Amino acid sequence: MLLAATCFALVSKAAQVHVALIFDDGPTPEQAQKFLTLFAAERVHVTFGSEAQYIAAHPDIAKAVIAGGHEIANHSYTHQHPKELDDATLEHEIVGAQKTIAGIVGAGVPVWYWPPFLESDDRVRAMAAKANLKVYVPKHLVVSADYDLKVSADELRKRATTGVVDGTVILFHEWRKETFEQMPAILAELKRQGCEFMTFSQLADYLTAKK
Fold it and tell me: pLDDT for 117-141, tens place per residue?
């Protein structure tokens, strides 16, 4: 009986699905604290893809994100298409954003650049490196599509919990109220699927060790 239980525990552990949830375009005072309270109750840690302009406007929220054990990824200064920017503007959007965020969050300074619209090329990677950042490239991405107001709350919940495999990043946006309203059900379903929730850095370390 003990051997069977031990084998089951080992199989269950091996079958865990490691995922990272990312919440873009904040921090937003209307939503952020709700998410932080929920994640604390659920004992879930996530990554926030934050814009420097909003961190500068709401520094206390950014500090609360770090204090809650979450991670902040540099999601640019003002969320423009990186490939459309001249070098000086791109530097402001990445390097300038990093300086602003670092000056506010201190020990929680981002190590990842999470490009707006997931646009990346050699120029973007070089500018990220100038800011001592690495561009985060998901092994597998599931998109809730909550940025599209035509996508209903039920649909975004289904999209966020379908096709999730080990190493998946699940993309949300902090500002949409339906995203928060559906989050308890989303977390419950992901837990039912055996998901273990990680930050970007934790997931990257896990995937590197797995190789």
Answer: 999 999 999 999 999 999 999 999 9
**Strand duo 168-173 + 195-198: pairing:** unpaired
Residues 6+ apart with CB under 8 A from 156: 144, 145, 146, 178, 179, 182
What is the distance between the alpha carbons of residues 134 and 131, in angstroms, rounded to a whole number?
A: 9
| Domains in the chain, CATH or no CATH each | 17-210 (3.20.20.370)
Are the C-beta atoms of residues 172 and 23 closer than 8 Å to each other? yes
Low-confidence winner among 10-24, 162-176, 196-210 (lowest mean pLDDT): 10-24
Query: What DSSP letter does each residue of 120-135 carry, written as one string?
Result: --HHHHHHHHHTT-EE
Three-class SS state of 170: strand
Does this model's pTM top 0.90? My answer is yes
Please check whether residue 32 is in contact with residue 46, taking contact to mean a CB–CB distance below 8 angstroms.
no
Tell me if the bond preceding 82 is cis, omega within 30° of 0: no
